[in-house]
Design goal:
The protein is α+β, with helices and mostly antiparallel strands. The chain has helices at about 5-10, 30-35, 45-55, 70-80, 85-100, 100-110, 135-150, 155-160, 160-170, 170-175, 180-185, 245-265, 270-280, 295-310, 315-330, 335-345, 355-360, 360-375; strands spanning about 15, 40-45, 195-200, 210, 220-225, 380, 400-405, 415, 435, 440-445, 455-460, 480-485. About 40% of the residues lie in helices and about 15% in strands. The chain has a 5-stranded mixed sheet, with helices on both faces. A 4-stranded antiparallel sheet has the order 6-7-10-9, with no helix packed on it. Strands 8-11-12 form a 3-stranded antiparallel sheet, with no helix packed on it. The chain is globular.
Length: about 475
């Protein structure tokens, strides 16, 4: 087969001019807006699928979710026999030594030429993230090329061609409501850009936004979209595309990263004190991957900018409020202040032509948000294990929940089943469970004679409906999940 035939086999390349919104442009005239041209390229990309498979075989947790069981079954049927290839051990090692995970995996994927060449498209010292240095990049690529041949990856991709084509066929509907010109209007960035939408079937439900600059080409920005809806046959399906649909919001979110992350990185020294103070309050609410103030700030601005996109496209107020509530429920309780900050930016574009121009005012907003957050009680830890632990002893007889400030026992408790339903709720005895004398912890105890099941997933949600501090502030919602061990 010719060297580039594989990409032709699994990729349907669709080129569209940037869609212009019917709404008035923000921070620019329609004639200025028309000067900013962009192409949207959409595809299932063998580089992305290959790297997600490698990460899965190496045990990367974020590539282990089960959002697409049929595809996952095909992956393991073909590749499990190659799990001892040197590439897999090396990939496992650089996760520990260099923090290669999540978006770094996808950054490497789009930095390479199509297989079987798999050659760097840009200098190894500039692969989109500092985690990939020259030494580990060279070794990884060398082993990846060998793995591609040894594991007969081309045969696998040929066998999945119909699945990939079906997924790609859903994408054009997304463009009818997606406004690429909004980015140049909102951020004041007139640099020509190529927008790439890649469906990452092997990424399961995780999505990533990546920016790359290559010599003699416009900037390339990528939204690598995870899978959220499947039909009975395991094929990807797209909900009706609107400015408020889940897919559109996710697309806007991922492309936002390519504008916001570099701007925040450029002003790290200015933002660090306020960012670190925000993280100190926010850490208990954030997922394990959001452990730096830069990540929390990037995510805050990216999510707030999605709401500004919805407002710019005349979304219904109930839909905007629902999105705000979703983000607050995920732990971003300071998001209303960030949305207001961006509104100030949009309303004063003569003074702040570019997003970067208003960043010097951001520390004040962050400090105000931090002061507000400090009033709310939070779960700071679980006494017996770390939240998300996958090896909890089934002999455990209680869970102690520790709070950041004294709680009011008279207000009661509000504990709900988690996303897995009531069958995965621990055998809690309400009468035997109680607060500590100082109100800074609550211990859940099991019903008499009942135990946790071995090798079983449990989950529940602590909500602020009744959990309240002694000074009257509700607890920030806190989901708990864990898995028991075999013994």
């Amino acid at each position: 087969m010719p060297r580039r035939s594989l990409l032709a086999l699994v990729s349907l390349l669709i080129l569209f001019p940037a869609q212009s919104s019917a709404s008035p442009p923000v921070g620019g005239t329609a004639s200025h807006q028309s000067k900013v041209q962009a192409a949207i390229q959409s595809t299932v990309d063998p580089r992305v699928e290959l790297l997600s498979i490698v990460a899965r075989l190496a045990g990367y947790e974020e590539y282990q979710t089960h959002a697409n069981p049929a595809y996952e079954k095909d992956i393991h049927a073909h590749f499990d026999r190659h799990a001892n290839h040197p590439l897999i051990a090396y990939t496992r090692r650089i996760r520990q030594t260099h923090g290669i995970s999540h978006d770094a995996v996808m950054s490497m994927a789009v930095s390479l030429t199509p297989p079987p060449e798999l050659a760097p498209r840009l200098p190894l010292s500039a692969l989109g993230t500092p985690r990939w240095n020259k030494e580990i990049s060279e070794q990884f690529i060398k082993l990846l090329k060998d793995f591609y041949q040894t594991a007969r990856c081309e045969d696998f991709f040929k066998g999945q061609a119909s699945r990939y084509k079906h997924a790609e066929a859903t994408l054009p509907a997304l463009f009818s409501s997606f406004d690429t010109d909004w980015y140049s209007r909102f951020y004041g960035d007139r640099t020509p850009k190529n927008f790439h939408i890649i469906l990452g079937l092997g990424n399961q439900a995780h999505s990533y936004g990546i920016k790359q600059e290559t010599p003699d080409e416009p900037e390339s920005i990528y939204a690598i979209m995870g899978i959220h809806r499947l039909d009975a046959a395991g094929n990807y399906i797209l909900a009706p595309a609107t400015a408020t649909s889940e897919e559109t919001r996710l697309l806007v979110h991922e492309f936002n990263h390519s504008f916001i992350n570099p701007a925040i990185a450029k002003h790290e020294k200015l933002l660090a004190p306020a960012g670190k103070a925000l993280l100190a309050e926010a850490a208990p609410l954030m997922p394990p991957t959001y452990r730096s103030w830069q990540t929390v700030l990037n995510e805050s601005l990216v999510r707030a900018a999605v709401i500004r996109y919805m407002i710019a496209h005349q979304s219904d107020k109930t839909q905007i409020d629902a999105e705000m509530n979703r983000q607050v429920a995920e732990g971003f309780i300071w998001l209303p202040e960030i949305v207001d900050f961006l509104e100030t930016y949009e309303n004063n574009r003569k003074q702040y032509p570019r997003f970067e121009d208003i960043i010097p005012l951001l520390p004040d907003t962050l400090n105000n948000a931090t002061a507000t957050m400090a009033r709310y009680p939070k779960v700071i830890s679980l006494g017996e294990f770390e939240n998300g632990n996958l090896e909890v002893s089934p002999g455990l007889a209680q869970i102690t929940i520790r709070f950041s400030k004294p709680m009011n026992p008279a207000a009661g408790i509000s504990i709900y089943c988690g996303t897995q339903g009531m069958s995965h709720f621990p055998p809690m005895d309400m009468a035997a469970s109680s607060y500590s004398p100082d109100g800074k912890s609550f211990t859940m105890k099991w019903k008499k004679g009942e135990k946790l099941k071995p090798h079983f997933d449990y989950s529940f949600l602590l909500k602020g409906e009744r959990f309240q501090s002694r000074d009257g502030y509700p607890l920030m919602n806190y989901p708990v999940s864990f898995r028991t061990s075999q013994q």
